[in-house]
């Protein structure tokens, strides 16, 4: 594949991704008319709090259990981006794409699928989420970022065998 065709193809994938995310954000705000107000309330609820069982202070919502609509919208966003990553991965195999781009897409797929699971488990299913749930969620998001990087490296390593 020529370098020019490759750049066009990657530009097309980028345009699809950005366009999809913008449409998704617009759809989430249209489907949840009071979402903007809920996001503002969520941001206003932040203050510096003690991380439970530590001597560490971090920003967090004062009452994390009172922002269910924001968590649901974030969960829906994560699920939709997971589906997008699956579609992009299929396209990357259908229209030969570089190994680097395929591994990046696998990494994104792992991250967004994991994020949607963590949002559901720690923020949505805990109707009365506590600061402990909030900080567990963010700790696991950091772990998930590491797992997604390892998934990317694994794809690269396996393909070289």
Detailed description of the structure:
The protein has helices at 3-31, 35-44, 68-94, 99-124, 131-159, and strands at residues 46-50, 57-61. With 161 residues, it is mainly alpha-helical. Strand 1 and strand 2 form a beta hairpin.
Beta-strand fraction estimate: 5-15%
Radius of gyration: 19 Å
Q: Which overall shape is indicated by the principal axes computed on the Cα atoms?
A: globular
Q: pLDDT average, as an integer?
A: 92
**Helix run count:** 5
N- to C-terminal distance: 23 Å
Counted beta strands: 2
Q: Largest beta sheet: what is the strand line-up?
A: 1-2
The helix content is over 70%
SSE string, helices as H and strands as E: HHEEHHH
Count of spatially separate domains:
1
Largest sheet, if any? 2 strands, antiparallel
Unreliable segments of 5+ consecutive residues: none
**SS-based structural class?**
mainly alpha
Index terms:
single chain; 161 residues; mainly alpha; 5 helices; 75% helix; 6% strand
Show the helix and strand layout:
Elements: H1 3-31, H2 35-44, E1 46-50, E2 57-61, H3 68-94, H4 99-124, H5 131-159
Antiparallel strand pairs: 1-2
Can you summarize this structure?
The chain is mainly alpha-helical. Helix content is 75%, strand content 6%.
């Amino acid at each position: 594949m020529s370098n020019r065709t490759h750049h066009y193809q990657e530009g097309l994938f980028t345009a699809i991704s950005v366009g999809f995310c913008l449409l998704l954000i617009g759809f989430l705000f249209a489907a949840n008319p009071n979402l903007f107000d809920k996001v503002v309330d969520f941001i206003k609820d932040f203050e510096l709090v003690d991380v439970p069982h530590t001597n560490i202070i971090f920003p967090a919502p004062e009452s994390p259990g009172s922002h269910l609509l924001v968590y649901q919208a974030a969960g829906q966003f994560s699920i939709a981006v997971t589906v997008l990553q699956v579609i992009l991965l299929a396209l990357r195999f259908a229209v030969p794409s570089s190994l680097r781009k395929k591994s990046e897409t696998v990494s994104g797929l792992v991250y967004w699928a994991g994020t949607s699971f963590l949002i559901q488990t720690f923020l949505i299913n805990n109707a009365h989420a506590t600061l402990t749930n909030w900080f567990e969620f963010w700790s696991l998001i950091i772990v998930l970022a590491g797992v997604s990087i390892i998934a990317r490296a694994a794809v690269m390593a396996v393909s070289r065998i």
